[in-house]
Design a protein that fits this description.
By secondary structure, the chain is an alpha/beta fold. It is 56% helix and 10% strand. The longest helix has 19 residues. It is globular and about 60 Å long.
Length: 215
């Protein structure tokens, strides 16, 4: 009934070893993982209930940049004017805030920002190409899990009953999407324990929200 979440595969592996040392043979039965590994596992298990193919592939940073370069080339847009890494960063931050391509486009045009408008156009095509390739990126893993918990009461309650105790490590480094994920899992029982140090919050540049631990 325990779900423990941390930020690196190395830390998760070390935690599983310690559980197994305390309770021999039980380490593999406890879900100890990163946020992304947890979401990937859940999405594969529940794929057919949420409109996904369970055999989806996961794009890493290199795959993402290559796809964005391909899109810019199709759009006849200069990479010097709109660097692929900057566009990717903007898309990743949007997903941290649970902004899909359509919502991002509305925000971009409301602010009349040429860079954000270009990102919006790329974002929309990027998501379409991911879908056509049966692929998700790291941001999608968390975003789609949060959306599934938000929209499907039966699914949300299933995992709230499955995981009665939620432990989150390095909580100062969580972003908005991860906060909502934890909130949905903790549910009515509210058996959640987080560990963190606001003085060690150094990842605001990649979407971490210090407010999660301070508030």
């Amino acid at each position: 009934n325990i779900l423990a979440v941390t930020f690196t595969n190395k830390a998760a592996g070390e935690m599983r070893k310690r559980v197994d040392a305390l309770v021999p043979g039980k380490g593999s039965a406890v879900w100890v993982s990163t946020f992304h590994s947890f979401c990937a596992k859940l999405l594969r298990i529940e794929a057919k209930n949420i409109g996904l193919d369970p055999n989806f592939v996961i794009y890493d940073d290199g795959d993402q940049v290559a796809l964005i370069k391909e899109i810019l080339k199709e759009m006849l847009v200069s990479e010097k004017q709109f660097p692929p890494n900057q566009i990717l960063s903007a898309i990743n931050r949007a997903k941290d805030e649970l902004l899909d391509a359509e919502s991002y486009s509305i925000h971009a045009h409301a602010h009349s920002d040429p860079f954000r408008e270009r990102v919006a156009a790329v974002y929309s095509t990027y998501q379409r190409k991911l879908k056509n390739s049966n692929a998700l990126d790291f941001g999608d893993l968390i975003m789609k899990t949060v959306e599934a918990f938000r929209d499907k009461t039966e699914l949300r309650e299933k995992y709230q009953k499955r995981f009665r105790y939620l432990l989150v490590d390095e909580y100062q480094d969580t972003n908005h999407a991860q906060y909502l994920l934890a909130k949905y899992i903790a549910g009515p029982a509210k058996n959640i324990c987080v560990v963190g140090d606001d003085d060690q919050s150094i990842y605001s540049w990649r979407g971490a929200t210090i407010r999660n631990i301070l508030e």
